[in-house]
Design goal:
About 40% of the residues lie in helices and about 15% in strands. Helix 9 links the parallel strand 7 and strand 8. Helix 1 (about 25-40) crosses helix 4 and helix 2 packs antiparallel against helix 3 (about 55-65). With about 210 residues, the protein is of the alpha/beta class.
Length: about 210
Amino acid sequence: MSTLTLPASTQAVIFDCDGVLVDSWNAGKFFFNSMRQAVGLGPLSPEEEAACFVRTIPESLDMIIPPDRREQADQAWKSFDLNEILDLIRPHEGVADLLERLQNAGKGLAVCTNGGAEQHTILERHGLLGFFDLLITTEDVARGKPWPDGVETILRHFRIRPEQAVYIGDSAVDQRTARNANVPFWAYADPTLEAGAHIRHFADVRLP
């Protein structure tokens, strides 16, 4: 097992949510296919599934719903019951233990996600919300990822410089977000991303 040691200068660790803290792939597929079904369309293609996973909900709906049915899709979104997908979401193995170790070491913990307010419910349901000092969703900033607005908000909250944080993500969008904010990027579960470190298992992460 390879180990990765967090730099001693790191004061805060910023996590993406979907695909990093939790496995929400099946939940996302269910939600977006439900939106398409509500407006009389068939299921997503594999390419559309992947594209929706890293975009905000409005961006994804713009992509997979024709303009003349977009308002109808918005109504379906507003009436969607989040409880339908909560049981399809699972925390990734070892993430709670890592968060506890980071918290006990006095590190600031934050989430920067392209999800919306539902992220609070998802993390609370799975016992992770209480670890975080700050959760930034697309509803909290003018521009979602890959714009740096969310990460920069987190840096201001902790009153730290970009090099004193680490951003952990699983997509090219996360990679670009970290780069745009000048924050060191660690990749989770995707060795093809350009990153300062690649995490296969959260248990591999060590504190200095």
